[in-house]
Sequence to fold (229 residues):
Amino acid sequence: GAVVSQHPSRVICKSGTSVKIECRSLDFQATTMFWYRQFPKQSLMLMATSNEGSKATYEQGVEKDKFLINHASLTLSTLTVTSAHPEDSSFYICSARVGRVGTDTQYFGPGTRLTVL
Amino acid sequence: GEDVEQSLFLSVREGDSSVINCTYTDSSSTYLYWYKQEPGAGLQLLTYIFSNMDMKQDQRLTVLLNKKDKHLSLRIADTQTGDSAIYFCADPGYSSASKIIFGSGTRLSIRP
Fold:
């Protein structure tokens, strides 16, 4: 299947700093990538849809200015958590959509665990 | 809005079969997914079933779909310790523009 990578896998930062998380599709081009947030023992919450060459579409309740998304190429989307606070600590997962006739599958990255001190 | 529901926990003995259940509300979906998430990892697509099927078998995995009751199940035969994970039922909606709706996830634990 298609491979999606994320970097870094873990990051610890001080409150008030910004953190960038990269999501790459390694063996395919993805016009659409998604960013999810997962709290402990909970399901995934879609934060935003990242479209190559255009602005991201944010879900209701997600702050655009806090979670900056840039989909600079067909293989790379970045999520920047600006002025991070402890409540931003979470597991962030990206996915990339691979569209084929009959199926439209999302492949997920391994996730990035963010801890804000 | 559309919703997907699952029970939160399932405990089975090693070697037994595991059955994870899911109910969904969106009847327009072309297919439905099962994802597996191991501790500290992302989601791995386990299998999917088209909405015009009522059963799909893939080695130890059997997916059953009851469209009338909007009920989906995942059966894992001969459950092994490596099957310990969280299993998410997911509804991708009707089109590529739809958002995937995930269930809460069922945490499968294996007893020796």
